[in-house]
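pasting for the record
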Amino acid sequence: MPARSVHVRVPASSANLGPGYDCFAAALALHLDLEVSEAEAFGLTSDLDLPRDRTNLVVRAFERLHPADGLHFAISSEIPLSGGLGSSAAAIVAGLFAAARLAAPGEVHDDANIFALACELEGHADNVAAALHGGIVVCAEGEVHRFAPPPGVALLLVIPHEGVLTAAARAALPQQVPLADAVYNTAHGALLMLGLQSGDLELVARGLRDRLHEPYRAALYPRSAALASGARELGALGATISGAGPSVLVWVAQEQRDRVREALAAQAAGWARVLASAFEATGAKRAATLDR
C-alpha cells in the first residue's frame, strides 16, 4: 500500500500592526510548506539553514501530537527566518497541523486545541492566530476574532539583511507606560480596526500609529524606524514595524504601490530588500495525498 504523505501550507504574519501590541496581526502572502511522509527512519531535508534533527521547531511542534519516528520532513519557506514576519509561528502551526492530520483513528485535534498548543509553544497568540486563520485577527483573552482584509490596500515589505533578537526587542520595553500613551493607542487601534473593516483608507492611515512599543525599540533598528516614520512622505498610507522587527510593513493604496516601491528601494539600498506582498485571506492549509 502506498505510504501516506501530508502537505501543509502556512502563511507568514505581521503582528502588532502599529497600535495593537500583542493583540493585532495579519496573515501575509509568503508561505512555509511542509510535507511529512512515511520513511524507514526519521529524516529532515530543507534548503534553509535549519536544524536537521528533532530540535527543529517544526518537529518539536509535531511531536506534541505525534511521534516523528519513521517519518521524513521536507521543509521549504519564503518567510525570512528573522525579521518579525512570523517564521516561528508558521513552523509551529505547520508541525501541529501535520501531526493532527496523521493522528490515529479516533484522535481529534480541532483548531481550538491546535491554537492552544501553538500559543504555548510560541509564547503569544497574535502570530499563530493569523497563521491559523488568515486575514486580520484581533486576539483578546484567549479568543480570536478574524475578518477579511479590505480591498484597495497593497503591502510592501522592507526586510533588513541583519535581524534583531526577539528577546532583545522585548527587553527594550518598559514595564509601565504613561496613561496618555495608553489612551493614544486605544484610540488609534480603534481607528485602524474601523478603517480595515470599512475599507476607509483615511482611517487606516490615521490608525497606523503607536506609542507603546515602536518608540522604545527604535534604537535597535534605527534605519527601519526612520524609514517607517517617513513612509507617508513617500506616498504610503503609513508603515508599522512588523512584530519585534526589524522588518517594516508599508501600507499603500493599491494605485500607489509601484511608485512607493521604487522610492523604498532607493532608501533601502545596501541594507534591506523590498518585496511586494499582500494580505493572505486563507490560513493554514492541509491536504492528505498518496505517494506515487
